[in-house]
Write a structure and sequence with these properties.
279 residues; Jelly Rolls; single chain; six-stranded antiparallel β-sheet
Length: 279
Amino acid sequence: MKLNKMRLTAALLFSSIVLMACSNPFDELADDINNALGLGSPSEETENGQEGSEEEAAEEEDSEVEDETTDEAAVQEEPEQSRETDEDLDPMYQTIDYSHLYGEGEEITIEAGDYTVGDDIMPGRYSVTTTSEYGSYLSIYNDEDRYVAGETLVNEDSGEDVGAYSTELLVYISEGDNLEVRNDDSFTLTPISDEYDDKLPSGMHVGGHDIEAGDYRVTTEETELVGNVETSHAEAYVTSRNAVGNPEEGGRESFVMTIEEGDIVEVIGVPSVNLEKLD
């Protein structure tokens, strides 16, 4: 009897040692059975499932990061695209082109009132003169009511006491422009196709057509008036502006400027400027 108890105790002790040596004997037993049946082990399926979940999570995270990057790039690009679109659509930024008006026009005399180009006056390039002895102002606006040109003119017979105002204004007027005359004096518009090389009268001129493109020294006759010589490509901005005329009022008697092909050159506030083309 005592011997049987000792054998039983020894068997239990041996079993405990075997179980302790095996971290998960039942899992291993299950793995052996599944391998024998070709089903794979539960532990491998669990590990594969975990690896699959981790890969899917990583892919989703990468996709989210990529989407965020794409969205950020779109946000960064959007203002530039919007700005370009605005400039493309805004006529203020479009290059001014008067080529369709070369050699166009029909002589007409206008008095006090408002006149629309295309209805009352033919589009074209004109020399504008007046019958006024004491100065009369003509103003021109485009079809969006933006100022195009204007000048106080006197006739050639006006005395010196009136002042050295312009006797002629050269303008390009397009379909839809409006001319305003606010007094009883009349203005005559005469089509013109003259080109200039050593002098520019008051008004608008196109570089490469009315005057050869290049570098020029610009001077003015002695005068009490102060005006400007400006160049531009579009209504939205002026590419250069130089004050001319009376130096006591800030005018310059001489300066150098570049006239490029297609430039709109405007002489404003003085009867004319002299040009000397530089080599």
